[in-house]
């Protein structure tokens, strides 16, 4: 029917959509893709072809990584490039936005046990980076001056900026506010709300970058320009929308520091940042730096200095006496993301309870928002079914959000990192600092890389399987004495390695401009 001559192209497209959807519903995705390719050969209109492919990508998301995605990305980006060549910036921006919504879709990158970007960042984003329009987005615009050294004769002026989520900044901000030779300003556009619409308009950002000038850009300049002009150093936390806006402003001689945590590596925002205007990029771990460099070529081409500095944590506050019965309590802290995969810890618990039913698992944190996507719903429903019998027996307890984790950790004997990916995993380190025995899954997203959980933590903390985790726990909780000795060793290592009193000097070096890092330092390995 798809090859019947005389059918108008729009009708042919509707028919192709119907056939594709029908085959997907029947559980025949390979046939759906073949039918789609057959239909495309008979559709000459490039706009109709690209639209059809993008719709089919959306339908295929339900079954996994869409097999139509490469063809859809290629078609839409070719359309964007042709539009940009004709000077139609607005339409080109729309096409780029259509593509990045699919490439960085949460169902692909966040709500599943794997990510195509993490599996092969360079390959997955090859078409994206080959596009003339995307190249224009990441082209260096440079700056009118050279970033200057810390001033003499007056305090260094430091602007700390973030859009919400202050938790990772509190110690850093407090530290610099207490230094006599630093004058600090703090900017969070969410606190007054006036400029939030600028942060929520990625299409306008893309249009401005492609055109070089816009009313939108003028508004950003009017807002952030005076802030940048005042500062000697701008520290932007999270390499997301606010970082994009700051690099739309010529920094002149002001040094710009951006910190990239984790989600940004799987998002489109860093691809809009002008890294020629960023002097230093901070990552919270080596493996996150490696992934980011593989996904974002501008990190290495623009000459930014790349640093791996762990999160700011007051670990000494976790050194509190354990409750007597804590030895048999495992904990996972943070379960509101699919990537946390608490089901892995449940498997560990089942191994342990086959040996000793005193072991229990405490799950701390808000429940996952199961309505975020069909994948999140499926994951959460499966987890609840998996723990139903254990919850009924009191062996799994969902503790909810806890504001005082140092106190909560007094009841925890083993801290488990069950995640498929982590940028650093503060909760694991905080648990170790409390004297809980750490057990770290070799995070699958990074397993086998030169920088991974195995290079971040002591070798004996990291395991390959639930069975190996259970064996480590059994051996280190065999007696009260063994457990306490293992916990004390973990606490000593955690505090000596990652406590704020150690880490703060690395932030000082970056802010004062003393840190040495290879410009555009590449990844330590490929997977």
Architecture overview:
The protein is α/β, with parallel strands linked by helices. A six-stranded parallel sheet has the order 2-1-3-4-5-6, sandwiched between helices. It starts with 8 loop residues before the first helix and ends in a 16-residue tail after the last helix. Residues 521-527 have low confidence and may be disordered. The chain has helices spanning 9-25, 29-40, 46-60, 69-85, 89-103, 106-109, 116-119, 121-124, 126-130, 132-138, 170-177, 196-199, 202-211, 215-230, 241-246, 286-295, 298-301, 342-353, 374-392, 405-408, 426-433, 453-456, 466-476, 480-498, 500-511, and strands at residues 156-161, 182-187, 233-237, 255-260, 280-283, 305-308, 329-333, 360-364, 396-400, 414-417, 437-441, 462-463.
Tell me the Rg in angstroms: 25 Å
The global form is flat
Structure classification: alpha/beta
Cα distance spanning the termini: 45 Å
Flag low-confidence runs.
521-527
Number of helices: 25
Helix content: 40-55%
Strand order in space, largest sheet: 2-1-3-4-5-6
Strand content: 5-15%
Main pleated-sheet profile: 6 strands, parallel
What is the tally of beta strands?
12
**Average pLDDT rating:** 91
Structure summarized in a few sentences:
The protein has 527 residues and is α/β, with parallel strands linked by helices. The chain has helices at 9-25, 29-40, 46-60, 69-85, 89-103, 106-109, 116-119, 121-124, 126-130, 132-138, 170-177, 196-199, 202-211, 215-230, 241-246, 286-295, 298-301, 342-353, 374-392, 405-408, 426-433, 453-456, 466-476, 480-498, 500-511; strands at residues 156-161, 182-187, 233-237, 255-260, 280-283, 305-308, 329-333, 360-364, 396-400, 414-417, 437-441, 462-463. The protein contains 25 helices and twelve strands.
């Amino acid at each position: 029917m798809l090859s019947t001559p005389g059918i108008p192209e729009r009708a042919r497209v509707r028919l192709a959509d119907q056939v594709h959807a029908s085959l997907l519903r029947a559980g025949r995705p390979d046939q759906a893709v073949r039918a789609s390719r057959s239909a495309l050969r008979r559709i000459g209109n490039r706009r109709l072809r690209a639209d059809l492919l993008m719709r089919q990508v959306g339908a295929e998301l339900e079954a996994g990584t869409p097999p139509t995605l490469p063809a859809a990305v290629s078609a839409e980006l070719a359309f964007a490039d042709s539009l940009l060549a004709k000077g139609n910036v607005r339409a080109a921006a729309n096409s780029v936005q259509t593509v990045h919504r699919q490439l960085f879709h949460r169902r692909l990158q966040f709500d599943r046990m794997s990510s195509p970007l993490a599996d092969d960042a360079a390959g997955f984003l090859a078409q994206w980076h080959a596009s003339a329009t995307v190249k224009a987005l990441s082209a260096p615009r440079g700056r009118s001056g050279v970033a200057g050294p810390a001033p003499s004769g007056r305090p260094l002026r430091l602007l700390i900026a973030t859009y919400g989520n202050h938790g990772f900044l509190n110690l850093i901000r407090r530290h610099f506010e207490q230094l006599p030779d630093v004058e600090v300003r703090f900017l969070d556009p969410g606190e007054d709300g006036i400029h939030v619409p600028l942060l929520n308009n990625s299409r306008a950002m893309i249009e401005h970058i492609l055109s070089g000038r816009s009313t939108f850009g003028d508004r950003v300049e009017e807002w952030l320009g005076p802030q940048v002009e005042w500062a000697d150093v701008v520290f932007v936390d999270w390499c997301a929308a606010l970082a994009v806006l700051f690099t739309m402003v010529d920094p002149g001689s002001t040094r710009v520091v951006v910190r990239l945590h984790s989600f940004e590596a799987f998002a489109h925002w860093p691809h809009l940042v002008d890294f020629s205007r960023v002097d230093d990029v901070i990552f919270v771990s080596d493996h996150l730096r490696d992934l980011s460099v593989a996904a974002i070529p501008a990190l290495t081409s623009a000459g930014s200095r790349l640093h791996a500095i762990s999160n700011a944590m007051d670990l000494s506050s976790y050194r509190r006496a354990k409750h007597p019965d804590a030895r048999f309590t495992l904990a996972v802290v943070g379960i509101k993301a699919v990537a946390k995969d608490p089901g892995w810890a449940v498997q560990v618990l089942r191994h342990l309870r086959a040996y000793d039913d005193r072991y229990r698992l405490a799950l701390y944190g808000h429940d996952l928002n199961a309505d975020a996507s069909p994948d999140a719903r499926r994951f959460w429903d499966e987890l609840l079914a998996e723990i139903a019998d254990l919850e009924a027996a009191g062996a799994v307890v969902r503790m909810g959000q806890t504001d005082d984790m140092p106190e909560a950790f007094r009841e925890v004997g083993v801290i488990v990192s069950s995640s498929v990916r982590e940028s650093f995993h503060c909760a694991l380190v905080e648990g170790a600092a409390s004297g809980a025995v750490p057990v770290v899954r070799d995070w699958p997203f990074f397993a086998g890389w030169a920088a991974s959980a195995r290079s971040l933590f002591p070798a004996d903390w990291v395991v390959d399987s639930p069975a190996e985790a259970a064996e480590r726990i059994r051996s280190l909780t065999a007696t009260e004495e063994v457990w306490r000795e293992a916990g004390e060793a973990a606490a000593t290592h955690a505090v000596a390695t990652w406590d704020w009193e150690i880490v703060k000097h690395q932030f000082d070096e970056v802010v004062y401009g003393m840190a040495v890092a290879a410009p555009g330092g590449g990844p330590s390995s490929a997977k």
